[in-house]
Queue: 4 jobs
Job 1
Amino acid sequence: PAPPALTHRDSSLCAELAPPSIVEEAAAAAARDDLERGAGGGWATAHVHPTLSASASLRKGIDEALLHDERTDRVIEGLTSNLFVVDGGNVLWTASAAEGAYLGTVRAAVLRLAKVSTLFADVVERAPSATGLRDRDWREAFLTCSLRGIAPLSRVWMPNDQEWAELRTPTPGDCGATGALATLLKEEMRRESEPIRSSAMR
């Protein structure tokens, strides 16, 4: 069944745990079509996107589907994005290449900035668990991709539980780790673009 309609929308996004059958269907399609695979034999979002889109897993009010492998209880990534989760111990989690994560450029930048910052107690390249989401141990979560940069998640629909898991999102008075990391990323992108702008003006 579809999740209930949202009563309001803000600048953050909503996601849904994709059914295991969708994950298996996508992996099977990638293997059948002999598409490029992720490191360690995992499948990558970029290659299974058509299969997932055809499944109509994205419903009204849902911005992104999170790929959940019930065999490992791990939530790998989004349909078109990488997933990062900050847990209750202020540890940042994201899936590794061996687990099938797509190695996006924004993901790499976020990992680099997170590791050199003092925002987190630790940075772990391992997919967060769905059990952690159900137990409300996902304090913050955000998606990364080239179009959105860093996009905070405000809630995740859990089909098995038939309820939303609400997450902390940045506010004007409290940006949280997600907002602080987004600021660092914007500053780095601005610094990297300055030489290009300067050359264009000559």
Job 2
Amino acid sequence: FMSPHHPACSMVAVHFPEVHRIVADADLDGLCAAAILQRALPDTEVIFAHPALVRSGHLDDVIDRKTVIVDLPFHPSCGWYVDHHLTNRPDEATANAFLAAGGRLDWAAEPSAARVAHNLVAPVSDLAHLATLMPFVDAIDSGGIERDVFLADGPLVRLARCLGTSQTEFMHHVLRLLAGGATEAELVADSEVAKRLSSAAE
């Protein structure tokens, strides 16, 4: 992928692997990371999963060389791996074999997988709509969220609580909003999201 949106004098040549599927963790970090990647790769389908599904082999049939795995354990059959968890980082031998087979590895010591994806995609796609959401995702995923913020149970805390593999339809609704450029304010004001947040507050 190479963005056509920059003038020639400042064009940033960013090439992403050719993928048709994003497999992401079914939490707020995985959701935001998938939405960011979809900004650059709009034709990809997204599957939300849980780490245990990757480790157990339940996703072996959907993970191939045109799959990017985000915020989940490494799988050697994927073509692109994006993550930030030290426990998921492939060892040197595994990483070298993956790269030698043509894979791309974007592991970085960032507070969230969404931040890793943001750093990759920002040069080619406007992500300004995520400016207020990203710090929250970083904080909640890295355990850095302040106690008073958590206890205040604001809309984003409640949103994080509404996600999971059993909420696939809702997750895809939020994904479409974020990939489509919705700001945090527009997200929480969306009728379906607002209804879920209201239920989560009860």
Job 3
Amino acid sequence: IVITQKGVVPSLTVNPQTFSGINANGTMVSLNVTCNTDWNISSVLPDWITPSTHTGNGNGTISFTVAANPDYQQRTYSMTINAGGGTNAPTQTVVFTQNAKAANTLAVTASATDINTQGGTTTLTVTSNTDWAVTSNAQWARVIDASGTGNGTSDIVIQANTGNTKRTATITIATTIGEPALTKTVTITQQPQNSEVNPGGNI
């Protein structure tokens, strides 16, 4: 009499099967593995996905550290997990999709663009998600805060106009890193001597 006992039939499920919309700045995600035997990640993972473990036995959880995406394009990777070994071993596929790095944004408003002859200070309010720099093409319009990161302000000190003609200065605000390269300009107009004006305006 020959008695043959079958072994355990491997079973494997994972949850979730898709990680979509992963933050471009990087984050950590967790995968729940339900299995009745040994299992392992059989894929060679890219360097932007780092698991807490590559192998396990029975039910478990894998934490994945997803690095920041340095590119302006979405990236995707499909990972395979095997259970039990052998040619008929069950497998599961897990898809990681990470958002693209955010493109540069830049907006600028000015507290005043038409300055009276005595001069004064106008403040630029910069709204951005990256580094930026401010320059002036006129010595009489001096930039106090020449650079910043993200949202911020930059003061422009306007000297008195001792001449008899109106003058203008161009203030340039430009992103300094990332893509696309963005530029905004503010035109400052100053009245000549013996002229009065109420400061105000924006771009």
Job 4
Amino acid sequence: RRTLLSICLVVASACWIGASPAYAQTAAGEITGVVQDQVGAAVPGATITVTATRTNLQRVVVSTSDGVYTAASLARLAWGLAISAAIGLAFGIVTGIIPYARAGLSPFIAALSLIPPLAILPILFIVFGLGELSKVVLIVIGIAPFLVRDLALRAAELPAEQIIKAQTLGASSWQLTLRVVLPQLLPRLLDSLRLSLGSAWL
């Protein structure tokens, strides 16, 4: 009965912290183990210890390493910013210098930017699961439309004379993008990423 009570207490404690434990009884009335995430992988630096008697719970100790969670959050943020920057550059250049693409994509991007990211969080959990992927996708959906619109506006502001001169000198579409448009968009991209850090972290 003591073992059954301890197991129940461990499960209840794990539900309270939002993870599942892998436990092992080490002494009479005491169980220690590691904490697992939603996909069953052990959370580094997180352990749980439950001490109980036959009648009451004496102690629940959950020890974690704050540095591990900080590193995981920073990695998640870095992935989200990198993917958003790539999407922002690609669609920003296309919608900024190609009128037909601007006419077709701008309404869709504007409508997507008005959707609160947290409103679609349950859908992301259903589609991508409870792991890190859904959190990275949430960051991308939250800041990518802002980057696309900002970079598209900057590309549309480029002097038409520069593009005409490059085409007159025989520049192809790739050369025009890489040597004329992209160098002038990179500083704006860095500013946009800096401004979106707050919303991406939240």
